[in-house]
Design a protein that fits this description.
The protein has 2 domains: 3-30 and 77-405, no CATH class; 417-486. By secondary structure, the protein is mainly α. It has helices at residues 3-26, 34-47, 81-92, 98-117, 120-131, 134-140, 146-164, 172-187, 191-211, 214-231, 233-242, 249-253, 274-291, 303-309, 317-329, 349-364, 375-407, 424-427, 443-446, 468-477, and strands at 53-54, 67-70, 73-76, 432-436, 460-464, 482-486. Helix 19 links the parallel strand 4 and strand 5 (460-464).
Length: 493
Amino acid sequence: MKLFDRLAFLLAVAAFFAAAFFSTEIYEGLPHIEDEITYVWQARLASAGKLVTATPVCPSCFLEPFVIDKDGIRFGKYPPGWPAALSLGIRLGVRDYVNPFLSALYVWLAYLLVKKLFDPLTGLISTFLTILSPFFLINSGTLLAHPWSLLLMVTFAHGWLDTLDAANKIPKWMAGSTAALSMGLLILTRPLTAVGICLPFIIHGIYLLIKGTPRQRQAVIGMGAVAALVGSLYFLWQYRVTGDPLLNPYVLYWPYDRVGFGQGIGLHPDGHQLKYALTNTRFSLQVGNSDLFGWPYLSWIFLPFGLIAIRKKPKTWPVAGVFFSLVFVYGFYWIGSWLFGPRYYYEGLISLTMLSSAGINWLAGKPWKGKPITRFMRLRFIFTWSLVLLLVIGNLLFYLPQRTGSMRGLYGILGSQLSPFKTETAQNLTPALVIVKPVQYWLEYGVLLDLSSPQLDTPFIFTYDRGDEQNQTVIDAYPDRTVIRYTPGLPFH
């Protein structure tokens, strides 16, 4: 490892600790939105080696977001890729550190990818931009699937490029298998995201099928076939949970939760339309223009220069195109994303950091590269790096602390809400059935689910207060448990 490689590795280690800080301190190791609660529920089920569990008595009493009851079985709506990966962390007792570890691994592999496509300096700049990105940090500490799928994306890109590069010394079967399996896992994790990531590489593959060498054609066909074979397990999963390989569990929870345009898709009375897609996209990009690097309304500033820098580097085009492809593909989905930044575009982060770092390098120039140094070259170099330094300092002093603070206690969820159940008094009442009556909103109940499990075999199991009749049905089903009636507004009563 040379100097820049060592620096990049140290930055990857720093990324782990920064992401772990967000996971354990900002988010307190707790799910804060419905998606995270569901992922944890599915991961706990997967850690027991199961995809489904039996429907409990009074399913609405055992309320779980995005969990479906059908034909006597209960299952989550999300594909199995991320729950399976997260379940490994649950088994090892390191759930809160899974995404920080994956994020750190991504930082290292992203550096190697940009270095491969450009040079070590561009790779190092890209790495700095990544670990200082509020967008990267606030997502890397969550329990969402995005850091896992981002890692799969960069692994796929490495495998794709190494397989098709005749000069690369890595065995082609190994590189090709890595690419195909990564894409297959990505399909099993976030199918629509996989489509968006694939599009630029599909275009590249079609070009190689027409203009490439026989070996390149074989490699493209082989990688595509294996990725499709692994990805087809998605339909096997759908068959297992719904009984129909073509029935998407999303529509069992919300019938309007589909991809496309037209009546019955999304929440608008006239369905999802192009005008709504453009509104969602515009708003998501506006949020990203600040969240990406913490440069309010200026995070895209170096992208045009990055596009100029890659105009004669066709090898970089598929990777650069991922972000733009994701923006296009998610225009077909009826809702945008902005709470954690434009997270539907998160797997395109490599495109943005690569293009921005290439743009900074291009704009600054390289006055030390052989040519006589002119005054203009000095001014260009000083101006560019002074601007970058000013923006970075502004992010560290103002934007990142403010954005970090906005994520603390998100939706009122705090670790202290679990404290009443960790006292000796409460432990002495176990095994217990806790009937929860939220005061304001359902997440006062939802946060407590972190102490329970899908199999309902933990010391505390929680039900949502549905009235005396349904509550009694649940009480009768668990005669050996102490019944606790709990109101979050009175946490120790």
